[in-house]
Structures are given as C-alpha cells and as structure tokens.
Amino acid sequence: MQTHVLPVDAERPELKVISKAAGILRRGGLVAFPTETVYGLGANALDEAAVQRIFAAKGRPATNPVIVHVADIASARDLVAEWPEQAERLAERFWPGPLTLVLPKIDLVPNMVTAGASTVALRVPAHPVALALLQAAQFPIAAPSANCSTALSPTRAEHVLYGLDGLIDLVLDAGPVPGGLESTVIDLTVKPPRILRPGLVTPAELEAAIGTVLRPRAHAWADSSEPKKSPGMLERHYAPRTPLEGVAGNSVERVRELSTQGLRVGWIAFSDVAKQGATATVVRILPADPGACAKELYAVLHELDAAGLDRIVVALPPATEEWLAVRDRLRRAATCFADGNGFED
Ligand code: AMP
Ligand code: MG
After folding, report:
1. Atom number in ligand 1 closest to CA 113
2. What is the residue-averaged pLDDT of the chain?
3. How many Å lie between the centroid of ligand 1 and the Cα of residue 253?
4. Of 190, 210, 230, which residue is a domain's last?
5. pLDDT tens-digit map of 33-43
6. What is the pLDDT of residues 40-97, one digit of tens each?
7. Which atom, in ligand 1's list, is nearest to the CA of 232?
8. 194 and 327 share a domain?
C-alpha cells in the first residue's frame, strides 16, 4: 500500500483535504491526523474491520483498547450507557481538549475498540484538523497514537511515516502538534474516579472540577497479577530503540562514566548548567517547565534515537505532581536506572 501525505493548514484546514480524508475513513481506510496531544491513527470507530486494521498496522495487542474521538458532547453521550454528573462537568470544563473519559459503553461500540471491555474511552480533541475531520466524517473516529505498538509517540508527520509508511492510507501533515504528550485518561466508572494515565490535564485541575480523584496506581505495571485496566500501564511503552537510562541524582557523573567506557551517549537535561563538563556525544536541554517540556520531549527522543547512540541518559525532572505525566512516560521509556529506581512516585 502506498501512504499518501497531504499538507493541511493547522488553523484553517482546507475543506478539500478534509473531505478526501473523511472519504477514506468512510470506506474503511486508515488516516493519521494531528490532534493537540500527538498524531492519531484514525479509523471509523463503528466499523469493526476498519478498527482491526489499526491493530494490524500498529502491531498492537488486541488487549489494548483505543480511544474514540467525537466531535462534541452530544456525540459522546450517544455512545455511552450512562452520562454521570462528573462527566458533564469534566466535558464542559476540558473539552475540546486532552482529557479522555472512560464510561460504560453501548452495544453499538464494537468490542474490538474496547478490547472486550464494557467501557469506552472518549474524547473531543481540540486540534482544528481533528475537529474538522470529525465533523466531515459524521461518525466517531477510533484513534490510538500513530506509531508502532510500544514505540515513541509521533508529534510530527515524519514520526508517523517512520513507523507506518506503507501500512496506512493517508497522513494529514499539519506540522508539529501543540501538546506533545498523550491525553489524561480518567475512569469515571469507579468511585472516586481514578486517573488511569497521567497526561496534559493535571490531577489538581481535575480535582478543581469534580473533587477527589485517585492517582494512577504506582508500579501497577510491575505487578503482572494486576489486570491491566489501562494499557498505558504496560511496563515498556513509549520507548526508543536505544537503551534509555533515567538518573535521579548526578547525571553528569553517569554520562562521564559511560563515555569513559567508550559508549556514545546522548544526554537529556533540564538545565544549561548541566552542560558544564559534559562528555556526551549529543546534549539536548529541555525546558524546565512541564508543559513546554512535554511539547518537545518526543521530538528530542526521536532525534536521539536516530543518532546512532549506544545509550540515552535522562536527568529526571522533580518528583512533583506537575511533572507526573512526563515522569510517567520517561519511566516507561527507560530500560535501566543508574541509581536504583529514581521513580519513587
Ligand atoms: P494510545 O495508543 O497511546 O492512544 O493509548 C490509548 C489509551 O487509552 C490506552 O493506553 C488506555 O490507557 C486508554 N484506554 C482506551 N480505552 C480504554 C478503556 N475502555 N478503558 C480504559 N482505558 C482505555
Ligand atoms: Mg500510544
């Protein structure tokens, strides 16, 4: 299959381009499109065969459900058996935006989408291209991130092609996405609601809207007896091919140690000060603000992963709640830890 790439204006998507993409989806095809979080790989959520193609293209296990994107609150309500007060409040406050609500599904939603679960994960994305596509399609669009299973998420069209070229019909290229990290997933079928995957909407923001919410279960992914309620919990996920190490303490020392062993090291730090005495082959400094960092994180990981390095060393950001999502992705990208497990949160 040949994968076509169509440029599209990120602010004012051209009707012609959107109609073409919607047509492909209507005929059961796969279209990668930008959302405000990462690029998604979309299929008609109500067409089981089309959704099956998402799993095949990504090499995604059938046990990992996909998020269903809808155009508005009314379309979300059409797919669920219950729409509790908390859903209404969160949707009013955060949609369109990077928050995914898990609710009891109706039979219309194929089991393939939810990996057999009786719940469906729903979100109204904020990116103008994603919204235009949903409005043109007139059906819900199932879309996980547009990358091969467990690999780094795509924040640019090039990242999508890197893993999926030849496996999907179309990529809508609107340039780099504004958010850079996957949505927050919250389970509203339990009391109090629980965050299944941390993301761009923080626990504090959720609590301001609906009161107490439980944090993601720390280390739940390490316990194989725990049923994986949300596959964001898979231990290795969002990972580069190059071994990545998270360092909570002095990463300068660790980089020096590895360089002395003759390894080509890529170093990701959060402060320019860290550059002093750097012995790494490549150094990248990420912004010391969680939102700004999230926007750049995957692009930097993609870049270092393509640089032919032996090791990527990441100086871990602080263990505070505003860094929860970034630390969560780094934890699952990491293969080893230099100083014990720096992830105690
Ligand atoms: P991604 O492939 O990165 O878009 O991931 C989609 C994520 O949505 C999964 O990893 C799950 O965490 C979450 N998800 C989707 N559907 C459900 C569901 N029915 N219940 C719980 N989590 C879900
Ligand atoms: Mg993903």
Report:
1. 16
2. 91
3. 38
4. 210
5. 999 999 999 99
6. 999 999 999 999 999 999 999 999 999 999 999 999 999 999 999 999 999 999 999 9
7. 10
8. no
Which residues, 6+ apart, have CB-to-CB distance to 89 below 8 Å?
209, 210
Q: Which of 210, 233, 256 is the last residue of a domain?
A: 210
The reply to whether 146 falls in a domain is yes
Tens digit of each residue's pLDDT (9 = 90 or more) over 184-217: 999 999 999 999 999 999 999 999 999 999 998 7
Question: Are 98 and 179 a contacting pair, CB within 8 Å?
Answer: yes
Query: What is the average pLDDT across 308-315?
Result: 95
**CA dist., res. 256 & res. 244, Å (int):** 16
Which domain covers residue 250, as residue numbers?
244-338
Distance CA 77, CA 104 (A): 11
Q: Pocket around ligand 1: residues whose beta carbon is below 6 Å from it?
A: 65-67, 102, 114, 117, 119-121, 144-145, 182, 185, 196-197, 229-232
**37 alpha carbon, closest ligand:** 1
Work out the angle at residue 205's Cα, subtended by the Cα atoms of residues 177 and 302, and round it to the nearest 5 degrees. 30
Measured in angstroms, how far is the CA atom of residue 123 from the centroid of ligand 1? 11
